[in-house]
Amino acid sequence: MDSRKQAVSIRMSAADIRSVKRLAERLGVRDSDVIRFAVKVMLGRLAPLHDLGVRGKSLVPVFVESGTDIFRHFELDALRLDSIINQGADPDARVDSDDIQLIAMSGIQQSYAKLRLSSISQNYSQQAKSATAAATDKAGRAGKPGEEDELGNSLRKYLYEKYVYRNNNGGLRSPVELE
Fold first, then answer.
1. How would you label 23-34 residue by residue, b for 16+ Cβ within 10 Å and e otherwise?
2. What is the mean pLDDT of the chain?
3. Per-residue pLDDT tens for 39-71?
4. Closest alpha carbon to 165 in 176, 173, 154, 156
5. What are the CA-CA distances from residue 57 to residues 51, 113, 122 (Å)?
6. DSSP one-letter code for 96
7. With contact defined as beta carbons under 8 Å apart, do 53 and 63 qualify?
8. Would you call 136 helix, strand, or coil by DSSP?
9. Would you say 100 and 71 are in contact if contact means Cβ atoms under 8 Å apart?
10. Is residue 101 left, alpha or beta, with left meaning phi > 0 and alpha meaning psi from -120 to 50?
11. Alpha carbons 33 and 44: distance in angstroms, whole number
12. What gap in Å lies between CA 108 and CA 142, rounded to an integer?
């Protein structure tokens, strides 16, 4: 494996470049240090995605924890997400298509995801309905930013209990078990 560093050219907006420069100045580092940091953080957050052996429910935490950023930046929809998560996965490791749609919707359409979560999850229907009622105004728009966090927490709880914690008496599964 080649361990030499290589120069890479990237296109960035003028606003992003100004932000990188301000951040570097404030931290007392070079612009390139800020960019390398950002790349390393992103690679860490998305690490399971670059391991082609990780498939199915083991990828759920990546998309739940990445929030809306990954969906908006890469313009992911439910069909593409299903392909990324389930392609080549064993039948018992596959993620249900309703849950794939819920993950994709939560990354793009917060208010619709609230309604979908409440209809999918019988175990959490009361909690999700409360969250939906509290976070939606009379016109059906999402409420305050804190209420969107409530949706994220409800979704995270539902998906983790269904795909990550299941079959382990409520304990977190080890990374080996997740693969």
1. bbeeeeeeeeeb
2. 77
3. 999 999 999 999 999 999 999 999 988 877 888
4. 173
5. 14, 20, 20
6. P
7. no
8. strand
9. no
10. alpha
11. 16
12. 12
C-alpha–C-alpha distance, residues 131 and 162, integer Å: 20
Question: Other CB atoms closer than 10 Å to residue 99's CB: what's the count?
Answer: 23
- Amino acid in position 131: A
The pLDDT, as a whole number, for residue 121 is 57
Hey, what are 100's tokens? 């794939």
Instruction: Give whichever of 8-12, 124-128, 173-177 has the largest mean pLDDT.
Output: 8-12
Partners of 142 in the β-ladder = 136
pLDDT band at residue 118 under the 50/70/90 scheme: low
Pairwise CA distance, residues 76 & 74, whole Å: 6
Structure tokens at 79: 């069909």
CA dihedral 50, 53, 56, 61 (to 10 degrees): -40
Q: At what angle do helices 78-86 and 97-108 cross, to 10 degrees?
A: 130
Single-letter amino acid, residue 96? D
Looking at residue 140, the DSSP 8-state letter turns out to be: S
Query: For residues 131 and 161, which has the higher predicted lDDT (pLDDT)?
Result: 161
- Say which residues have a Cβ less than 8 Å from residue 178's Cβ, sequence separation at least 6: 54, 57, 58, 61, 164
User: Which two three-digit tokens encode residue 144?
Assistant: 């305050």
Q: Which residue has the tokens 């100004």?
A: 18
